[in-house]
Every structure is written in structure tokens, then in C-alpha cells.
Design goal:
Number of domains: 2
CATH class of the largest domain: Alpha Beta
Radius of gyration: 20 Å
Number of strands: 9
Helix content: 25-40%
Low-confidence stretches: none
Distance between the termini: 53 Å
Strand content: 15-25%
CATH superfamily of the largest domain: HUPs
CATH architecture of the largest domain: 3-Layer(aba) Sandwich
Mean pLDDT: 93
Order of helices and strands: EHEHEHEHHHEHEHHHEEE
Largest sheet: 6 strands, parallel
Structural class: alpha/beta
Number of helices: 10
């Protein structure tokens, strides 16, 4: 491990510290974050290191204003650079790129942005218009600035992962986009920088999201309808949880029409809810269908 990551705050500094690595032909890994690093981020950093070996691992720490709508939590989003640098040191990160807003957007809001397509208007995009345009625009800029061979993102933000993969393919970036499994607390709650906004009561309630996903998983062999109904029953049984959406899609987040059947198919269940005023998201892979009967036993309905 390195004694400590090199900190770059400008494009020039980033280019200077990465130049020698590129000259040596090393593979470069990028882990984009907004900081407030936790165990989930550490799992991304470890995966990046595994993939590039002795090549440089670059972590960006940047709270991107372009992906926050008016009234969202941009101003209160945690900024913990000193603690984040310690996390990066512990995981052997080589370079931390922590630019200012004016460094990333020197002319203010960019005139040219990345259009994320129709999927960006659904699920998270329906609740947060413009969010994914901001996400893909900043990721495209980070790809251009760091020129990585691969980039690692968490599966917790699954719609974001799908859209970034599609952007990388469609725009021929040459960047391999890797998804890392969601890291969870012992009670199943997905790790998130926003979890720190939960008070003790809301924190206890928040575990209902993962319980609902597991209920869907248990009923998924009976099809989409059975899986969705099982998850809804769990969510509706927890007071103080305001569900934004609950959806079951294909692994690429296309729509599913089938309700069950003999042939098993891969799917993904996604949920968003407000708990104690904090908006949380989660998701889980499912294997849908495959039972001889399309409906679950009567006692499970």
C-alpha cells in the first residue's frame, strides 16, 4: 500500500500525477464518489485494486451540483475530505482527485450535456428530473480527465450503473464499467452516505426496505406479480415509510409483462422510499418464474 494518496485539486495536477503511470503502460482504475466514504466505497476501492494490480487507482471526490434539483440536499450533503483521505490511504489509493465546482464547470452550468435517454425519465428520474443528465455529464467529464481503463460503481445505485454502462458503450469511451455488489448493515440496510441523516427511530424503520426485497426474492419463482405483492405487504406493514416507487424490471431495466410461468428469467426489483424525511433507495436481483404454478400457495397471497 502507498504511504498516502496524492491529492490533486486541478486538471493540471491530475495530469501531472497520472502522466508517469500512463507512460509506463499501467492500467488505470477510477472510482467516482461524492465523498463521505463508508464501507461500501471501500469495497469499490478494493475491487478496483484487484482489477488493475499495480496500476494506479484514482478516486474522485466531488459533490456534483448538476445532479441535484432545487430543494434537494446539496447544501447538507456531507463533506468529509480529511476522513475520506484516510479511507483512501487505508485502501492503497494512489490518487485522489478532489476538484472545486469551478474546476469541473469553469463556465458555470455546461451548455453541452449528456442526454441519458428515455430510461432516465423513469424510476429515479421520474422523482428527480434532470438527475441522470447531471450524473452522466460529470462521469463523462471524469472519464475524459482521468482516461481510465475501467471504472467501478456500486450496484446500490442500479439505475445509475445501467445508464453509465450504456453511455460508455454508446459513446465508445473505451472504459470498462464494473458493478460492485451492495454492502449492507447486519440488518440488511444498504450502506449510503445519507444513512447518517436517520435518527434512531428512522434507522430502525429503514431496514424494512431490504426486508421487502427479500420477501420479493422468496416469492419470485411465482412471477412478477407475486414478488411485487410480497414486497408491498412488508412495506405497508411498517409505519412512517412513504414509498416513492416499487418496480420489477429486466436486468437492463426494461419493462416486464409476464406474471409467472415455467421458464425462469432474470429480473431486478427496485425501491425508493422516504423514512424520517430521508430518501433511500435499494434493489436486488431476482430469478422470476420457474414454478409449475403461476400463483403462490393460497397462504402466501
Amino acid at each position: 500500500m502507498t504511504a498516502g494518496p496524492l491529492l490533486a485539486t486541478t486538471r493540471e495536477e491530475l495530469s501531472a500525477v497520472l502522466g508517469p503511470h500512463r507512460g509506463a503502460g499501467a492500467r488505470v482504475a477510477l472510482v467516482p464518489t461524492m465523498g463521505a466514504l463508508h464501507d461500501g466505497h471501500e469495497s469499490l476501492l478494493r475491487l478496483a485494486r484487484e482489477r488493475v494490480g499495480d496500476g494506479p487507482v484514482v478516486t474522485s471526490i466531488f459533490v456534483n451540483p448538476l445532479q441535484f434539483a432545487p430543494g434537494e440536499d446539496l447544501d447538507r450533503y456531507p463533506r468529509t475530505l480529511d476522513a475520506d483521505l484516510e479511507v483512501c490511504r487505508r485502501q492503497g489509493v494512489d490518487v485522489v482527485f478532489a476538484p472545486s465546482v469551478t474546476e469541473v464547470y469553469p463556465d458555470g452550468d455546461p451548455l453541452v450535456t449528456v442526454d441519458p435517454g428515455l430510461l432516465a425519465a423513469e424510476l429515479e428520474g421520474e422523482s428527480r428530473p434532470g438527475h441522470f443528465r447531471g450524473v452522466l455529464t460529470v462521469v463523462a467529464k471524469l472519464f475524459g480527465l482521468t482516461r481510465p481503463d475501467l471504472a467501478v460503481f456500486g450496484e446500490k445505485d442500479f439505475q445509475q450503473l445501467v445508464l453509465i454502462r450504456r453511455m460508455s458503450r454508446d459513446l465508445c469511451t473505451g472504459v470498462e464499467v464494473i458493478g460492485a455488489p451492495t454492502v449492507r448493515e447486519p440488518d440488511g440496510l444498504a450502506l449510503s452516505s445519507r444513512n447518517r441523516f436517520l435518527d434512531s427511530e428512522a434507522r430502525a424503520r429503514a431496514a424494512v426496505l431490504s426486508r421487502a426485497l427479500r420477501a420479493a426474492e422468496e416469492h419470485a419463482s411465482y412471477g412478477v406479480e407475486a414478488a411485487r405483492d410480497a414486497a408491498l405487504r412488508v412495506l405497508e406493514g411498517e409505519p412512517g415509510v412513504d414509498v416513492d416507487y416499487l418496480a420489477i424490471r429486466t436486468p437492463e431495466l426494461g419493462h416486464l409483462d409476464e406474471t409467472g410461468g415455467h421458464e425462469a428469467a432474470a429480473g431486478r426489483i427496485l425501491v425508493a422510499a422516504r423514512v424520517g424525511g430521508t430518501r433511500l433507495i435499494d434493489n436486488l436481483a431476482l430469478v422470476l418464474g420457474g414454478q409449475a404454478h403461476a400463483r403462490p400457495p393460497v397462504g402466501d397471497r
